[in-house]
Write a structure and sequence with these properties.
Blueprint: E1 3-7, H1 16-29, E2 34-38, H2 45-55, E3 63-66, H3 70-74, E4 82-86, H4 92-101, E5 104-109, H5 113-128, E6 136-140, H6 147-158, E7 163-164, H7 173-180, H8 191-212
Parallel strand pairs: 1-4, 1-5, 2-3, 2-4, 5-6, 6-7
Amino acid sequence: MSVLIGVVSQKGGVGKSMVSRLLATEYARVDWNVLIADMDSSQSTSYEWNLRREKNKINPSIHVERFTDVEDAIQVHESYDLVIFDGAPHASRMTKNIANIVHLLLLPTGNSIDDLNPQIRLAHELVNGGIDKDKLAFVLSRVGNSHTELNEVLDYLHQTGYMILSGHVLEKTTFRQAVRDGRSITETRYIGLTSKCEQVVQSVVDRINYLTK
């Protein structure tokens, strides 16, 4: 059985593609056959990242394909151990279709209220539309170094009752440089920076195991 993960957002700039690529590379590192289904045809962020990855001959190899329809992506999913749907922002019908089929739906968000509230509203809309609340999980992405601010965000999210994954992705120049080279944010020289990212990955693994047991 293929594991299906969706990474979706109501707005751009919250680290959706960064989280998708993080998960893809870490699963591929342990010999999973992984596909990122890049559903944002107007940006093709993950697809173009993989072109840079291939050009620079970076391993492990990641499969990335562009799709405009969830049903088309589903046609190929049985060829892979893991399919990650890197959703298009503001795509309500597509987002709902992704949510219907995946085992786990991730909602990345930054620290700002402008990131948090649209993602919380999206979660509410999905649950009100019949999506199982247990499928949903928030990921803190592109956050700063302030522990006080981070704790305030966690408190704010805990009040919603949704799952919040352990760890977080920091906003770092090093990570942006890695992405420009076709690397994931765990493929940098700065091992200390990757520990929180690895916690995110482990939290996803644990949640998938719980939901599919």
